[in-house]
Structures are given as C-alpha cells and as structure tokens.
Amino acid sequence: MTTRPAPVGSLLRAAPPDRLPEVAAEHLRTRFPLAGAEVYLSDLTMTSLWPVLDPEGPAAGRLEMRVFGSQEPLVDGGSAGTDRVMLPLTVWGDRLGVLRVDLREPAGPDRVTELRSLADELALALRAAHNDTDRYYRISRRQRLTMAAELQWALLPGRSLDGERFKLAGQLEPAYAMYGDHYDWAVTGDRLTLTVLNGQGDGIEAALLTTVAVNAMRNARRSGANIVEQAELASDAVYSRYGGASHVATLLLEIDLSDGSVEAVDAGSPRALIAHEGDVRAVSLEQQLPLGMFGDGRYETQKFQLQPADRLLVVSDGVHAATPGGRPPYGASALLSALRGTRLQPPAEAVGTVMRALRDYHAGVEQDDDAVIVCLDWLR
User: Fold this and answer.
1) pTM
2) Residue 4: predicted pLDDT
3) Helix 227-242 vs helix 203-221: angle between axes, to the nearest 10 degrees?
4) Which CATH architecture has domain 143-378?
5) Which of 31, 105, 204, 322 can pair with 330 through a Cys bridge, CB separation 3.0 to 4.6 Å?
C-alpha cells in the first residue's frame, strides 16, 4: 500500500521555526519532479526580494517582483516542457515575499492551484514563526537598524491587511533610521481602528515616547474603550512620564466597515485625504491638543463619511509638511498628484508609489523628518 505524504501544513507546524523553508522545499521534492526552489522575502522598504534557502544568492528578478506586486501566480515556461512557477507569500493581505518552484514538467492549472495552497501554508507558518527566530529578520534587513528603528519595527502591527470590506497598507521611512512616526491598526467585526502618530523629538527618545503612547492606546482599546478613552489614557500616560515636556501628535480613526462612517480624534499633525475617481480632497477636522501636552487632557470626536470605493490616505507631517530645499510643502500639490497616480494600484502598492514620489520631491536633499503613509480602500 502506498503511503501518502503528510500534508505540508502538518510538516510546517512540526518544524523548528527557523527551518520552515527547508521543510517546504523537501516536501516539494517528494511531491513533484523538482528542478529547484527558492523562498524570497521582502526587504524593509518593500522594493526588493532576497533569497532564504541560498542567502548568498542574488535578489529576485523582474518576474518575481511582478508576482509580489500583482499578488497573482505566474508561470514562466522553459525549454523541454519545464515550467517555473512563482507564487505570492501573503497572510491576510500582508505581503511577505514570493515562492519560486522550478518543475521538470509543465505546470497545468491543477498543479498551480496545489502549489498556491502550499505557498499559503508556508506564508502562514512564516508569519507565525517570525518572532521565534532571527533568521527571517536578517534576510529582510539589508543594513543595520538604529535602536529607534528597532523599537518602531517591533511595534508595528504589520505592513498590510485585507478584509472582506477593505484593503489597508502602511509604510514608514527612512526604514533603517526612523524616529517617532508610527501607525497602528486593529479590526474586530465591523470596526477598524486606525492610528497615525508623530512622537516629538529625535532618535531613541522619540521612539520611546511613541512606544508609551501606542501601548497605552492598545491597552485601552483591548479593554473595550472607544477612541476618546484611548486618546485620554494615552495622553495621561505620556504626561505622567514626561510632565508635558514631550507630546505625541496623533490622529485616531474608528471606521464602521458596514456603512463607511468614521469617528475621528484629531490630536495633532497627521492629515487625512480622501480620493474618489481622481478627485482628491482634504478631510477637514478641528485640531485638538497633542497627547501628553497637559494633565487630564480631554478629547472629542468628529465625524466624516466614506463612500463606496473611496481611498483614505493618512500621512504624518514628514509627508505633508516636507519642504526640501525651501520648496513648497509636499502636501500643497505634489502629494495630491502622487495620490491621483495610484488610482489603479492596491493600497500595498499605492503607499510605495506615494513614498517614492516623496523621495523624488526631495531631489537629492536628505529627508530631515521620518514619514508615515497609511492607505485604506473601503470596498463595502
């Protein structure tokens, strides 16, 4: 009697967290006529993919990057009936990398479907194992992080997130030396909470300040508090630690995914814009005091409405207020042009497009502030 191979999910769950790519590759060898395989993971800037099985090998090529961007499998036919299959490694919309499988036979639709299922299992295992081994961190980092950046990356919820009614993505720069800018999100049922922060100051002190604020808001949110209570608890925590000498500019949003209604607490410099069919408008909110400026800070919500297919962009002051070389603020017109150029891109690609446009706007002048961009598509 022929013994069927164990499901790849079972094999990955039983494997040490640092050996997942090897276990997946070995399963491929036992299951298919295999010529080779490679697992590629994205770098922190989401602009290149790097090999895990052969860490001394070159970065991924054009086709793998296309799969990473499109999030669709791609079959590249070779000679003598061989096929190279490339598949996205993605969990809940969070793009991790690409799996490349070189087969010694043609890859028909059923084979691609089977390989995509394997890639999904591998992506889920990689996401679960990320904090139990440094192997994958080392692949994604192409240079050493500052201590401030280390704190910020450890605090992030993820890079992108998809649901039935929304697509969401965020990006920070400079990736290896950021300071106090940050974003956070959480979805429960029909409620999506989104926060963009700008901690005052530079270096590790700014990162520590933001860490206090983010964890205070998470503590309140996970206890069932609304965004007003989240802002007030965070403000109290920051003031208790810094006595008003430092503060955190913050925009808190709670989005009802069932009808697009948004409640906002505007406590500082992050700005929100809405794009719809090429038209871009700023969300007008009355600004309240940043978190931690005074003891017993109190906040009020304001409301605005999203329409189906609206794109909501939230940016820190390192984006909208950037004035490199004395140029007009990036948010005055260049940001609107960049946002219009993302109409056909999903949020995970759009944040990169806007960030590249920001770098181009600096035209060789070094960025003097870190920057956050978060993009939400409400699909209804």
Assistant:
1) 0.92
2) 60
3) 140
4) 4-Layer Sandwich (3.60)
5) 322
